[in-house]
Amino acid sequence: MNKIYPGIEEALDGIEDGMSVMIGGFGGAGAPIELIHALVARYKATGSPGRLTVINNNAGNGAIGIAAMIYAGMVAKMVCSFPRSSDPKAFTDKYLAGEIELELVPQGTLAERIRAGGAGIPAFYTPTSFGTDIAKGKPVAEFDGRSYVQERWMKADVALIKAELADRKGNLTFRKAARNFSPLMAMAAKTTIVQASRVVEPGAIDPETVVTPGIFVDRIVEVPNPAQEEALLREGAKS
Amino acid sequence: MKKLSNAQIAWRAAQDLPDGAYVNLGIGFPEMIATFKPEGREVTYHTENGILDFGEAPPAGEEDWDLINAGKKAVTLNPGASFFHHADSFAMVRGGHLDVAVLGAYEVAETGDLANWSTGPGSVPAVGGAMDLVHGAKQVWVVTDHVTKKGEPKLLEKCRLPLTGVGCVTTIYTSLAVIDVIDKRFVVREKLPSISIEALQAVTGATLVVGETVGDLNVPEL
User: Pfam families from the entry (chain B) (predicted)?
Assistant: First the structure.
């Protein structure tokens, strides 16, 4: 078993128009910048993959990462909890012009829907959003005297993930708070594609410290010294 | 009319942080509460992006942008900190494991309803973790000016703006008073000594319940 791919292009092979793409990260922490930018470059060169549904906590910042995807015109829909950032222009302009669709999901519900998708749980009940506009049209039920809203699982065709360590069997660790949604997304996508800062031999990651077991991971490409979205933005990166 | 600054409101709320509590402070104004935590009380801060027991901001130039809080600000770790993914983070929230969550507000209703995420059509809606945080924490505190910038009441019989949560707020720390939500009524716990109950009622959009003892809201100059 060897899930290591020789390059980013090969690892991203098979991402097609209209697919749903989960992208790890919370703000800049955990954003797989190299994978995203390679996908943007392919779209600019070939016109594909376009009309994507992108699932992330946010909706891009500045003009790099997910914002670069939006500026390039390859995103039809964003699923996120907080489409604001220090520079949300890419998303905001397109949203207000009606050129991009938004499915707003409370953050904990987003996480749990993705977890449920990966865990084979088609629906669950949560107190979150009961009595609010977000709950409109969703089934409500009472349990032990309290009201809860039914939410459905969320899956995706592809997940793009940034990990710290990986081995060829797919075991992953993450760096600090860059972990956020990535272990959940790795479970919920048909094809989970990982950029790892360092690939190590199987056994080099202590089994006690594996965060994402290899069964959830399909492809790994080593990207040493990866870019960090927030650091890039603070250095003034434009695109 | 004399009123408390945001820092003073944060100071007052901080005095009620219980020793040993797990606390989530919302982005912005509520974050100031950590500055005023009374000496000798140990409080563990949770940030919904996946850290328990984070500390102060690092010195400028020493930020690690993989180590941030929910407001995307760089933080440090206290000894005993832990990282976890988002599903675990929100299990801590909805599962009733947090003692206190503190949020800002556009409006609060006497029923405990909170509106703090959307000012209505025409803007980009963004909710983040607020709708999760208001359900699950044992206490949900709001820190806010008592009135809007236009001077209109923010404490109302019923919220006009889209709701964040129903019946969730337990205490409101305002620029004029400390008010508990008890049995769907605003109960005044403390008020500034310089303001009468009548004057407080005049800037409040729902009936205030005044017990036999209303404490003085005394806060140091900050």
Answer: CoA_trans
Q: B86 in contact with A at a CB cutoff of 8 Å? A: yes
For residue A91, what is the enclosing H or E element?
Answer: helix A89-96
| Euclidean distance between CA atoms A195 and A9, whole angstroms | 12
Task: Identify whether B63 is a catalytic site residue.
Answer: no
Of A27, A29, A82, Cβ closest to residue B126: A82
Best probe of the A interface among B51, B54, B83, B85, by most A CBs < 10 A, is B85
Query: What's the angle, vertex CA B169, arms to CA B194 and CA A131, rounded to 5?
Result: 140
A228 vs chain B: nearest CA distance in angstroms?
7
* Nearest-angstrom CA–CA distance, A184 and B79: 27
Question: B31, B39, B48, B221: which is the annotated catalytic residue?
Answer: B48
**How is residue A4 annotated by DSSP?**
B
Check if A126 contacts B (Cβ < 8 Å).
yes
Nearest residue to A195 (alpha-carbon basis) of A169, A175, A232, A165: A165
With CA atoms as reference, the chain A residue closest to B163 would be A132
What mean pLDDT is reported for chain B?
96
Q: Which H or E run contains B74?
A: none
Domain annotation for chain B: domains and CATH numbers: 6-216 (3.40.1080.10)
Query: Which secondary structure element, helix H or strand E, spans residue B10, and what is its range?
Result: helix B6-14
Q: Hey, how many other C-beta atoms are within 10 angstroms of the C-beta on B59?
A: 9
CATH number assigned to the domain covering A8-125+156-229: 3.40.1080.10
Q: Do A133 and B163 touch (CB under 8 A)?
A: yes
Q: Which of B46, B52, B66, B82 is the best residue to mutate to test the A interface, defined by the most A CB atoms within 10 Å of its own CB? A: B66
B26 touches chain A (CB under 8 A): no
* Predicted pLDDT at B148: 97
Interface probe, candidates A112, A161, A176, chain B, greatest B C-beta count within 10 A: A176
CB of B124 within 8 Å of a chain A CB? The answer is yes
How far apart are alpha carbons A173 and A161 in whole angstroms? 11
- Distant-in-sequence, close-in-space partners of B172: CB < 8 Å, separation ≥ 6: B105, B108, B141, B142, B143, B144, B155, B178, B179, B180, B181, B186
Helix (H) or strand (E) holding B23: strand B22-25
ipTM of the complex: 0.96
- The tens digit of pLDDT for each residue in A116-165 reads 999 999 999 999 999 999 999 999 999 999 999 999 999 999 999 999 99
CA distance B30 to chain A (A): 18
Whether the per-residue pLDDT at A239 is higher than 80: the answer is no
Q: What are the C-alpha distances in Å from A57 to residues A110, A159, B69?
A: 8, 13, 14
